[in-house]
Amino acid sequence: MDSVALTPNKTLVGEGCPLRLNVFVRNTGYHTETFTVKVYANATFAASNVFMVLSESSAICTLIWNASGFAKGNYQISVVADAVAYETDMTDNNCSDGVVFVTIAGDVNGDRKVDGKDVAVLAKGYNSLEGQPKYVANADITDDGKIDGKDIAILSKNYGKTEP
Question: What is the model's pTM?
Fold first, then answer.
């Protein structure tokens, strides 16, 4: 593996909710490579998957971190790609990029409470798809690329909850 980079899909995730993590990998070798990519939240294992990248090409590999069991708070997200056969330089097989805040599911503005402000953000992006101007990634609680009734249901279930 020649290099790896990481982009979290959003800056916060509700406890128990999924977060897509897009990992860019580049294979500058002359052979197709199969390798494992692992994601960590701080030093805690969060997700992994096995990917195959053709020789002299790159790919975006998506992993899903389910924030169940992670305490609320900030997490530095990092990624590690396993070394492949005959690889001698592994300095670019890992990177850290971005802090993700784990909060109450439905707290889409990150203020540690689910209230009318969150409803307003979700309503503003309601019925939008990822890539559209109205789409607000943090309001996509289910992280499925659309802001819809599923997101409203989660927010509604936790409406009024606060964290210290």
Answer: 0.87
